[in-house]
Amino acid sequence: MTAQTPRLRLILASASPARLGLLRTAGFAPEVIVSGVDEDALTAPSPAELALVLAEAKAAVVAALPEAAGALVIGCDSVLELDGEALGKPADAEEATARWKSMRGRAGVLRTGHCVTDTTTGRIASATASTTVRFGEPTDAEIAAYVATGEPLHVAGAFTLDGRSAPFVEGIDGDHGNVIGLSLPLLRGLMSELGYSITELWTEDPAPND
């Protein structure tokens, strides 16, 4: 059977291997162009709005590049809302440790902003997906061991469902993929809003998830 080439080019404006993996597993073969947006320079009134502002900024930067012409550009960004505060990637191990001690035994809401820009028409569709995350109660020793791996320094909220912190998450209410970094059901809705079926982006033989 001959592999099918999608009619539409898809560009992921993110360096996240988790987001790329989600798209590949779902049958897409996106190109990756990292936006380089300074996330600390942007603000918004609420965590949900901040996630969306960041996603829109990433998509806008990449969509303006000549190499993105004719493509659909996906921008995403995630923050964990806890006590009304938006928590992104911790700055250092000390902050990651304090973050986990404040999260254990509690629930937070993972907000992921999604923005799809059609570089052919200039149209944009964007929205934020929210998933409640219920954290377990890792011991101080477990937290120290996890922080020592370096993983929490590279992910929003200092945790991930597809890594070493998975045993410390009791459960979620909402879309699993959204917590990892991208909500495929929401992406489908945004594509539909722009006039595309998500199946137009499928390849018959998706690249394996690295």
Automatic annotation (TrEMBL):
> What cofactor requirement does the entry state?
a divalent metal cation
Main subcellular localisation: cytoplasm
Matching entries from InterPro entries are given as:
ITPase-like_fam (IPR029001), Maf-like (IPR003697)
**Which UniProt key words apply to this protein?**
Cytoplasm, Hydrolase, Nucleotide metabolism
Q: Which residues cross the membrane?
A: none
In the UniProt entry, which residues are flagged as the active site? 77
Top class in the EC scheme: hydrolase
What is this protein called in UniProt? Answer: Nucleoside triphosphate pyrophosphatase
- Catalysis performed (reactions): a ribonucleoside 5'-triphosphate + H2O = a ribonucleoside 5'-phosphate + diphosphate + H(+); a 2'-deoxyribonucleoside 5'-triphosphate + H2O = a 2'-deoxyribonucleoside 5'-phosphate + diphosphate + H(+)
